[in-house]
Amino acid sequence: MDGANHSVVSEFVFLGLSNSWEIQLVLFVFSSMLYMASMMGNSLIILTVTSDPHLHSPVYFLLANLSFIDLGVSSVSTPKMIYDIFRKRKVISFGGCIAQIFFIHIIGGMEMVLLTVMAFDRYVAICKPLHYLTIMSPQMCIFFLVSAWMIGLIHSVIQLAFVVNLPFCGPNVLDSFYCDLPQLIELACTDTYWLEFMVTANSGFISVGSFFILIISYIVIILAVQKHSSAGFSKALSTLSAHITVVVLFFGPLIFFYMWPSSSTHLDKFLAIFDGVLTPFLNPVIYTFRNQEMKVAMWRVCRQLVSYPKIS
Questions:
Q1: Is 233 exposed, middle or buried (0-12, 13-18, 19+ CB in 10 A)?
Q2: Once rounded to an integer, what is the mean pLDDT over residues 67-82?
């Protein structure tokens, strides 16, 4: 045999989330409502930031881009999951499966970088307020955004390089509702021990490393504020709590997926729903709940949207 791709599998079959009609109904309603809410909430944040001149600052620029990424997180696997819930045969083409993996990892890589940049933004805003606009200039914000796209793309291409030429010669059943590397590699007709190790090293260690870097960064910020101003400590803690919550929600499931990929299938599915459906919904809620300026601006945009048909 030569080194070509000898795959004879043209599609993969998902086992889905549950065979119980009652559970399927609950999942359908729950997932559909959260998907619509996350799409509307993140779209509203993007619209608010782009249309309100008062929000044309680095922190809101980064928030709008996080919302854009969350639109992608919601759309990669959730619509397919909702569509398949009541279907007896849940299938995805080989090309569709590879495409899902590509977009899952490019979006995941981008979000890791963007959350790190947002931590740096808060550090500069809290610890170096007089130099904030100089350091976080428009050019620097664009540089960070382009870097996030490039790092996400490189990470995703590296992941695909592991699997695109694997031989799949028969088994095609995935005990999941979407495609990702750990489950897909197990179906390959070859020894995948080192491949699984490489995937764990690329995704798991990067996730763990980024998570600890972010947590340490926020601890440094809090200690710096506490040292210089006890009065500003509570305000800084209130601001950073939203960022820390989002970091934990994003990295928690990722670390579990790639550091312990063979533990519990049911828990894997629950965390996948949490990461793909619930987290994109919670992010706009968390970031706007304590931000009075953002809430006022969003309310203003909503009133304009409601009154626009009357004006027309």
A1: middle
A2: 92
**Orientation angle between helical segments 94-127 and 205-228, nearest 10 degrees:** 20
Backbone φ and ψ for 229, nearest 5 degrees, come out as: -155, 110
Distance CA 119, CA 281 (A): 21
CB-CB contact of 78 with 17 (8 Å): no
Identify whether the C-beta of residue 76 lies closer than 8 Å to the C-beta of residue 100.
yes
What's the pLDDT score for residue 232?
61
CA angle 69, 248, 159 (to 5 degrees): 55
List, as one string, the DSSP characters of 67-81.
HHHHHHHHHHHHHHH
Backbone φ and ψ for 213, nearest 5 degrees, come out as: -60, -45
d(CA 115, CA 98): 26
Nearest-angstrom CA–CA distance, 94 and 91: 10
Secondary structure class of 174 (helix, strand, coil): strand
Q: Are 101 and 179 in contact (CB under 8 A)?
A: yes
Sheet holding 173-174, edge to edge: 90-93, 11-14, 173-174
pLDDT digits (tens, 9 = 90+) for 239-296: 777 778 888 888 888 777 766 655 556 777 888 888 888 888 888 888 777 788 888 8
pLDDT digits (tens, 9 = 90+) for 197-225: 777 777 777 888 888 888 888 888 888 77
Q: Could you give the angle at the alpha carbon of 186 between the alpha carbons of 180 and 187, nearest 5°?
A: 95
Helix (H) and strand (E) counts for the chain?
Answer: 12, 3
Average pLDDT over every residue of 37-66: 92
Hey, what are 57's tokens? 């600052």
pLDDT tens-digit profile of 118-166? Answer: 989 988 888 888 899 999 999 999 999 999 999 999 988 988 887 777 8
Angle at which helix 233-259 crosses helix 205-228, to 10 degrees, equals 170
Tell me which DSSP letter residue 11 carries: E
